[in-house]
Amino acid sequence: MVDTKHTVYPNVQKEKADLEKEFAKKKLEDSDDEEEDDDVKKPEKPLKVDTELADWNLFMKANDFAARRHRHQKRKDNATPYINHPIGVAYILTNEAKVYDPVTLAAAVLHDVVEDTKTTMEEILEEFGEEVAEVVGQCTDDKKLAKAERKKLQIENYGKHTHRAKLVHLADKLYNLRDLERKTPIGWDKKRVSEYFKWSRDVIAEMKGTNEALECALDDVINKHLA
Length: 227
Ligand SMILES: Nc1nc2c(ncn2[C@@H]2O[C@H](COP(=O)(O)OP(=O)(O)O)[C@@H](OP(=O)(O)OP(=O)(O)O)[C@H]2O)c(=O)[nH]1
Description:
Blueprint: H1 10-36, H2 48-69, H3 84-95, H4 102-110, H5 113-116, H6 121-138, H7 147-157, H8 163-182, H9 190-205, H10 212-226
């Protein structure tokens, strides 16, 4: 028996129950419609409950995949598990940007797997489909290029990316800048930290109008640091 009293995510249980009720109601309405005009063939309507469950599954699959691919990596403080970063980026998107699009959220947790692990774009395409792969592709810097070139390309290209990719870029930068305030990566001096803030400001400027909450939060953290 499921212990609904002690569930970790009570709202999820409630949402699921609501969805199931809605699903049952919808089925009843659909069967009423059919009785009224049998001859008219209705277009296929996606059932909300099915799509919502598929969305959850896509997102959880992305979390599972990213956790396994990043499992041996640490952040640059040499202590924090790397996976904290992509999960934190997805959480910024839901919590602060109010973005609930499953493709964007799945791409957010996967945004570093191609750049920083042996994962290929082909795998992402096969496992997660074209929409997620498009965003992950736009979040993947070419590590074969020199660092200065990679940084320049972000300023040049991010403004041309899809809305979904821009959301991930902004949340990524916000996480990294807050992380820099929290703890300086090993080997970084004050100058390098400031340069990262200034460069981030230039990258973000190319994505104006993407999401107000993210841009305000970024302005806050950057202005505080560079004041
Ligand atoms: N603030 C912070 N960043 C860390 C830490 N550990 C790893 N990083 C990653 O380091 C990158 C920034 O460091 P840089 O020296 O400028 O760039 P590089 O690693 O790509 O050469 C970011 O990668 P990125 O995701 O590719 O972002 P971005 O360079 O595109 O912003 C960030 O996610 C940490 O402990 N603190």
